[in-house]
Amino acid sequence: MTKGLAVSTAVVAAGLMLSPVLGAQTAAPKAAAQAQPEKWNSIPPLKASDYAGKKPGPAPRRDLSGIWDAPEFQGARQVSGALEHPALLPTKGGGSQGGQSDETGIAHPVPYTAAGLAALKANHPSGPGVRQFPAALANDPLDQCDPAGFPRMELYQFRTIELVQTGNQVIDLNEFYGGWRIIWTDGRELPKDPDPRWNGYSVGKWADDYTFVVETTGLNKRSWVDHAGRPHSDELRVEERFHRVDHDNMELTVIINDPKMYTEPWVALNKFVLHLQPPDFDMAELLCSPIDMADYNKQIGDVVIEDSGKK
Amino acid sequence: MKKRLIATGAMFIGLLFSSVSLSAHHGNAEFAIGKTVTVKGTVTKWFWANPHCILSFDAKADDGQLVHWVVETQPPQSIVPGGFSKQTFKPGDVVTITLEPVKNGLPLGRMLGAVLPDGTKLVTGHLD
Questions:
Q1: In this predicted structure, what is the pLDDT of residue B24?
Q2: What pLDDT, in 10s, does the model give residues A171-189?
Q3: Number of folded domains in chain A?
Q4: Residues of chain B positioned with their CB less than 8 A from the CB of A98
Q5: Do residue A84 and residue A27 come from a single domain?
Q6: Chain A: nearest CA to B81, how far in angstroms?
Q7: In a shared domain, residues A258 and A163
Q8: CA A1 from centre of chain
Q9: Looking at the complex, does the CB of residue B77 fall below 8 Å from at least one CB of chain A?
Q10: A96 and B106 in contact by Cβ < 8 A?
Q11: Taking 70 as the threshold, does the pLDDT of residue A20 lie above it?
Q12: Which of A12, A91, A255, B71 has the most Cβ atoms closer than 10 angstroms to its Cβ?
């Protein structure tokens, strides 16, 4: 820096310090924020174009570790149900306001058994979707701060996950409602007739150097498969295939297999691309707190419903 | 008050008269999807937390009466990318809010966008 520039910079800095207290308070933090990027509650890239033009390095062998984002711009929120089977009519967004007793006519039907269809109808989702129910009749366990469970943590509000690989485990930390699970890689068998878990029992192994296959069982049937209220029984088995495409990208496929509820396995996510984030990415907290929910209901939730009921 | 599990339509009447408990979190059905209302008013409260952030503000109706609006957004980390923060609104701020209202005409809705006192325009981005 030339001396002249240094002097004028000092003058500007002095001017900032002498400005009214409020001005100084807003000027200093802004400068600090520009000097150091936000380290907490990180925001992933928001547009597909943010990833365009990047040339990722090759995939590391047998390595899933890192913080992976499931972007909203790819449909990760899945508010109408699992991405491959939203509970919507073929017309764009059609059926998003409910009014149907079942999923007849949706663009990509799910292969229900009779028991599966009956179980579906007992689940009352809040929508949007062909079976959207008013709040007074909705019975989504999530609205009472029950866990999302598995596989719903990947089939609704799928946001960011962190995968940590150890000698005998892959640890999966999921942002939505703080779901976590251990995927055992020590060769053990899945348990027979275990006590049900919301997040299940998982084992995983490498099918090849770049494809990790996980089987999950022992799932608590109180959980919904997705936000459209797709049901499952205690016989549900979920297969995930994590395919490390290159250094920055991983494809996730999720297959639902429940012979009591569905006549055949169905694909809930099909090669959904997860994007590697920098190692200092700080996941935001999105926990469901009953006391936060009660506060919210006091201000808006209850008011909306009580008056909806007065029609 | 007993909690009631809704099994059939006949029990719906019973629910109207029982207390609304934790299952009161509303969904899409209560909103007039696609409808947009723009209201100018004065902020009274900005509640920044899960599951929804809530902006309370007062606006004058045509007859001069104060209408107390309560408008929600998605959780904090869903609207931070749009430029929102805990400091975005302060009591006394005069703001213009674009919202999707509830169907029954009450002054409640979901925020679509906001114009702040200094003219800054913010957009929440989505409603789900």
A1: 52
A2: 999 999 999 999 999 999 9
A3: 2
A4: 29
A5: no
A6: 7
A7: yes
A8: 49
A9: yes
A10: no
A11: no
A12: B71
Q: Residue A190 class from Cβ within 10 Å (0-12 exposed, 13-18 middle, 19+ buried)? A: middle
Minimal Cα–Cα distance from A201 to chain B, Å? Answer: 28
Is the same domain home to A136 and A268? yes
In percent, the amount of chain A with pLDDT more than 70 equals 84
**A139 and A12 in one domain?**
no
Most confident of A305-309, B27-31, B36-40: B36-40
Token reading at B93: 């701020």
Q: Which of A41, A292, A307 sits opposite B49 (nearest CB)?
A: A292
Find the CB nearest B23 among A43, A79, A143. A143
**Residue A146 placed within a domain:** yes
Distance CA A259, CA B48 (A): 44
With CB atoms and an 8 Å threshold, state whether A134 touches B30: yes
Which domain covers residue A7, as residue numbers?
A: 3-35
What are the contacts of B47-50 at 24+ separation with CB within 8 A?
Answer: B47/A295, B47/A299, B48/B76, B48/B85, B48/B86, B49/A292, B49/A295, B49/A296, B49/B76, B50/A286, B50/A287, B50/A288, B50/A289, B50/A292, B50/B75, B50/B76
CA separation for the pair A256, B9 (Å, rounded): 31
Tokens 């007039």, located at residue: B32
A18 and A71 in one domain?
Answer: no
Same domain, A191 and A115: yes
Cα A228 from Cα A81, distance rounded (Å): 5
| B36/chain A closest Cα distance in angstroms | 17
Tokens 């396995």 — which residue? A265
In this structure, are A16 and A71 located in the same domain? no
Of A140, A293, A307, the CB nearest to B104: A307
CA angle A299, A305, A309 (to 5 degrees): 145
pLDDT digits 0-9 by tens, A74-124 = 999 999 999 999 999 999 878 888 989 999 999 999 999 999 999 999 999
**Average pLDDT over chain A, rounded to an integer:** 88
pLDDT digits (tens, 9 = 90+) for A221-263: 999 999 999 999 999 999 999 999 999 999 999 999 999 999 9
Instruction: State which fold the B26-123 domain adopts.
Output: OB fold (Dihydrolipoamide Acetyltransferase, E2P) (2.40.50)
